[in-house]
Amino acid sequence: MNRLLLRNADDGDPAGGWNRDPEGIQAEGVDRSQIAKTGLRLFLAVVSSLFFLFLIAFIARSQMVDWLPLTEPLAPLANPWQLWLNSAFLVFSCIALQWSRMAARQVRLDATVIGFVVAGVFAIAFLAGQLWVWQQFVAWGYFVASNPANSFFYLLTGLHGLHLLGGLIAWGMIVAKFLHRVPLPQLRASVELCAIYWHYLLGLWFVLFALLTSTPETYEAIARLCGLR
Amino acid sequence: MAYAEQAETEALHEPKSFLTRYIWSQDHKVIAIQYSLTALFVGVIAVMLSGLMRIQIGFPGSLAFMDASAYYQAMTMHGMIMVIYLLTALFLGGFGNYLIPLMVGARDMVFPYVNMLSYWIYLLAVLVLLAGFFVPGGPTGSGWTLYPPQSITQGTPGVEWGIVLMLVSLAIFIVAATMGGLNYVTTVLQARTHGMTLFRMPLSVWGIFMASIMALLAFPALFVSAVMMLFDKLLGTSFFMPAMISLGQQLDHQGGSPILFQHLFWFFGHPEVYIVALPAFGLVSDLISTHARKNIFGYRMMVWAIIAIGVLSFVVWAHHMYVSGMNPYFGFFFAVTTLIIAVPTALKVYNWVLTLWQGDIHLTVPMLFALAFIVTFLVGGLTGLFLGNVIVDIPLSDTYFVVAHFHMVMGVAPVLVVFGGIYHWFPKVTGRMLNDTLGKLHFWITFLGTYAIFFPMHYLGFQGMPRRYYAYDNYAFIPQSAQELNAFITVVALTVGVSQLLFLFNLAWSVFKGKPAGGNPWGAASLEWQTPNTPPKHGNWGEKLPVVHRWAYDYSVPGIEQDFVAQTVSAEELEQMRQLSAGTRIADVKP
After folding, report:
1. Best residue in B179, B182, B185, B225 to probe A by mutation, most A CBs within 10 Å?
2. Which terminus of chain B has a smaller tally of CB atoms within 10 A, N or C?
3. What is the spatial distance between Cα A94 and Cα A200, in angstroms, rounded to a whole number?
4. Is the peptide bond before B535 cis (omega within 30 degrees of 0)?
């Protein structure tokens, strides 16, 4: 085998396959919003990995004998109406944000702003509601260290809340821009990003909600499925 | 397919003052240098800690302050700094930041502000970590794996403050790494210049790209374990802490699972090996191809091997836990996946060797380091096959054989690439060459020295010398010869440690006094060597972004006199070069 053969063994320039446009003749312009969307989606993948690992830890820990379920008849999540109420706040928040997003696409400034502000207010209501649930837990004597089920409840709801709080910081910055009369086309991408993030956090919340209010039998079934038992 | 066309029209975050140019800079090149210098700084601390440990092992009792606690603290900080704060930060934050935009033809990272934040948060993580040395009780001495319950139980050094600072520092580091990782991946996906297809990217970019994806997915596992352990330590929860009696007292914890921590830690810990190794694989591929003046053998295979290793590295973690009492079927599964991962890894080694075969090998300093990497990685990788088998691992576990293995494969090997990479790209970063004589001296002392340090450790491991002991004298099962070998290793380790001053001196001296390098001193084909200015100015490419017409490995192309064809050379220009070369050859023959 000589050098030429070695070279040809790889067929020279391997561009192809994934490469629709190797010569760059049809180069498409990519706007900043596309880049930001890619960045956000990657970030959501990271958040998914984080919560997935927390949930695996949750299931593994739930199989220990000292686990006291929060869904027992006299436990705080036996009737989780407060969590349902909070969920409704978050759903309304997402609906308002989606409405704002669609209005922004149609360049309707008033509707965009109203939807956006309402979304934030509902999100704040959700967070306040979650704090209220925590307060109830404390009032009932369900402290963070009393039982691993409690620890996970505080940890998971707290982390989810922190993520929403981070979103609300971005929301506040965009509201400030609206107040400074920054033109809508410049803010449309930001509204889109907020909406994607909000919808993700709503989906994540329902996963957490379902898991936190499930019965020990469900945990056991999941643990068996995952080989953790 | 996406191109950075907008970069041609958009205003860049132009620096306006000294502060925004060199301190609060959003330029990827400045951030890369900031990352690299900080990482090298903590690296020096980690080397000094290893020197102290070696003095204690080789000559027990010769350091008055080195009691068992101080030894464990030095060991913990050495390991954590080397793995996380030096290697991860240097490969991704340093090399990744510098090379990705230049190699894919972008003006900068896609989120420059986040990139800047990433560095400052990394620096904060380093400061919090180092603060451990100054708090009551000192840094944690629980070993770099921080296994509970021991790490947060009385009796372990640094149990009050040190462990908290370590966990907080790790959490902060992960935030920084995530910010950086999002930038690296998005830049590769969205900001490549015209013609820079994924399969035309240099393998350095592929390695860093895949490692960044892995970091984004694996670091959350460390974050989860750090947060849960902080809860256990500070709030009294029992995620990992079982019921136990400590110093005669029944602790408040009960029911926690230390094994759960091990699973989470190693779900991060094993990909971490490849988060360090994949960039090293990529960089070394480019070094070998450039300095052997030959296209990389099996480019596509190399790319797929990087991807395969990245994916497989997420399903091998429990081979670090064979002695934790896991189900034997699990052990079988993880042994199989561990051995499977050797296939794409071996493929890469074969391809490096085949790239060298019949190459026009220039034994430059970067090439020496690259060759040394192949040999070292091979030795470390082969002992990995030993340890990947449960039945061999169990007797060797917790012996110096393991210390030898992981230092060879993920300590020395990547560090050799770091050195090779710095010698290779320093001319682009500063416009000056590093001193060759000092470089070769540094290479030979480091290469031979690290073998003299770590190779004998395999024998110590076979003899049954355990890891993590503070002193090895006065144990009946450790022969005197082992102690003599330990003294020898210590002497060499100190020599190698001190010899790194040669490298640091070379860096500092060459920045100001080094031989001017010109734009492309190695005659390299990849894009970063084709910048209009060296060092590249803000925005990298002048007015127009470059257009890429070929891969990064066109070396010794038949019919072309110049022994490389840059990625920016079009087919027409190549034809002209061919005709010119033919003309030159005819002119040579005629007289």
Report:
1. B182
2. C
3. 10
4. yes
| Residue B89 DSSP class | I
Q: What are A13-43's pLDDT values in tens digits?
A: 655 444 434 444 334 445 688 999 999 999 9
Instruction: Kindly give the parts of chain B with pLDDT less than 70.
Output: 1-13, 585-591
Other CB atoms within 10 Å distance of the CB of residue A224 = 12
Are B199 and A38 in contact (CB < 8 Å)? no
Per the CB < 8 A criterion, the answer to whether A188 and A105 are in contact is yes
Does A33 lie at the interface with B, CB-CB under 8 angstroms? no
Average pLDDT over residues A145-171: 97
Chain B, 555-574: which have a CB under 8 Å from a chain A CB?
Answer: 556, 558
Q: pLDDT by residue (tens digit) across B367-412? A: 999 999 999 999 999 999 999 999 999 999 999 999 999 999 999 9
B488 exposure class (CB count in 10 Å sphere: 0-12, 13-18, 19+): middle
Chain B touched by A69 (CB under 8 Å): no
Closest residue of chain A to B298, computed from CA coordinates: A10
DSSP conformation letters of A24-36: -TTPPP--HHHHH
Reported pTM: 0.94
pLDDT tens for A39-92 read: 999 999 999 999 999 999 999 999 999 999 999 999 999 999 999 999 999 999
Give the one of B195, B224, B235 whose C-beta lies nearest to A22's C-beta.
B195
Please give the DSSP secondary-structure letter assigned to residue A226.
T
Long-range CB contacts (within 8 A, 24+) of A143-146:
A144/B231, A144/B235, A144/B236, A144/B237, A145/B235, A145/B236, A145/B237, A145/B238, A145/B252
- Taking CB atoms and an 8 Å cutoff, what residues of chain B touch A10? 295-300
B227: contact with A, CB 8 A cutoff: yes
Q: Note whether B260 contacts A: Cβ–Cβ < 8 A.
A: yes
CA dist B414 → B172, B283, B299, B409 (Å)? 24, 10, 21, 8
- Segment 66-85 of chain B within 8 Å of chain A by CB: none
The span from the CA of A154 to the CA of A143, in Å, is: 9
**What six digits make up the tokens of B203?**
């393998």
Scan residues 436-495 of B and list those with Cβ closer than 8 Å to A: none
Sign of the CA dihedral B160, B163, B164, B169?
positive
The widest CA-to-CA distance across chain A, in whole angstroms, is 80
Count Cβ atoms within 10 A of the Cβ of residue B25 and give its class: 0-12 exposed, 13-18 middle, 19 or more buried. Answer: buried
Q: Report ipTM for this prediction.
A: 0.93
pLDDT at A214 over 50: yes
Q: What are B517-534's pLDDT values in tens digits?
A: 999 999 999 999 999 999
> pLDDT > 90: what percent of chain A?
83
